Amino acid sequence: MVKVLISLSVLAAAATAGSVTELPESVTKLIDYRTDPCDDFYQYACGAWYKDAVIPPDEHEIDTSFNKIHIQNQAVLRKIYSDNKPKLGEFYNSCLDTATLSSLGLTPLEDSFKAIRSANTTLDLLIVAGKLAKNGIPAF
């Protein structure tokens, strides 16, 4: 245990002296070297990043690695969609029997409507909502 504490003390002393040159630049540019890691390790480790980070108004967080993946995925999906729009429409429509759907109207939903109308208490309504959700109909 004493060896571990001594090792950590040496590492902390080296870090505050600015001699941590083995870390990659992607890490060192995030560090606030003005802060003593023994006083506030979070500020030391993330201070420079925190000072410069800007959260875009349409986002609620910053996660650069997953954000880049998300942006790339969206671009791929947009390309697939735009290149194959007619094919996707044909595929989607091939699964629909619009004549039958039109003739049935809301009849397949009547049982759900009756269950909702018959719910007299909050508990009844929650039970109905659970049954609807189980059948793929989100209630909330």
Automatic annotation (TrEMBL):
A Pfam family: Peptidase_M13_N
Keywords: Signal
Gene Ontology CC: plasma membrane
Leader sequence segment: 1-17
Keyword flag Manganese: no
GO BP annotations listed: protein processing
GO molecular function: metalloendopeptidase activity
Source organism per UniProt: Aphanomyces astaci (Crayfish plague agent)
Tree of life domain: Eukaryota
Peptidase M13 N-terminal domain residues: 37-138
Protein name: Peptidase M13 N-terminal domain-containing protein
The keyword Signal belongs to this UniProt entry's keyword annotation: yes
